[in-house]
Amino acid sequence: MLGDQIGTERGKVTGYRILRSEGAGPKVEVAFQASGKILGIDHSTLATYTSMMRPDGMVFGEGQGVVRGATGQMANWVGQGVGKLGRGQAISYRGAIFYQSASPEWSRLNNVAAIFEYEVDEQGNTDAKIWEWK
After folding, report:
1. How far is it, in rounded angstroms, from Cα 131 to Cα 134?
2. Helix (H, G, I), strand (E, B) or coil at 57
């Protein structure tokens, strides 16, 4: 069941790298930076993910990132999702993300399976929404 929205962030793709394909379609690594709120705390994110085209035209992605809170909180995450390509740099992902944090303000994240919507527009601007999955 979809639970409370626990985060939002907006940012920008900062780079692309083409990786060796492992027998499937092309594999692209994407780096991005974003900022927003998680559990009501202002934060910034640095992250990378890889995207691989599947035979059905959808994209499979998996990534990892580091989140830093405005007053010193730290968390890292890993996630996976499926997406659909748009025009230019545009892509739309839906998936799951898992956090780990030793910061007391974010300790709740250690017990959360989160789901996300992640959008990149034609110019490489990112927009993400994150919910707790109950």
Report:
1. 9
2. coil
Sequence letter at residue 54 = R
Q: Using CA atoms, how far apart are residues 24 and 12, in angstroms rounded to an integer?
A: 27
Q: What is the DSSP letter of 134?
A: -
Whether 113 contacts 131, CB under 8 Å:
no
pTM for the predicted model, two decimal places: 0.93
Q: What is the pLDDT along the chain (134 residues), one digit of tens a residue?
A: 889 999 999 999 999 999 987 776 789 999 999 999 999 999 999 999 999 988 888 999 999 999 999 999 999 999 999 999 999 889 999 999 999 999 999 999 999 999 999 999 999 999 999 999 98
> Is residue 86 within 8 Å of residue 92, measured between CB atoms?
yes
Max intra-chain CA distance, the chain: 45
If we measure between CA atoms, which residue out of 62, 109, 111, 61 comes closest to residue 85? 61
Q: How many residues does the chain have?
A: 134
Q: For the CA atoms of the chain, what is the radius of gyration?
A: 15
Query: How far apart, in Å, are the Cα atoms of 18 and each of 21, 25, 28, 29?
Result: 9, 11, 5, 6
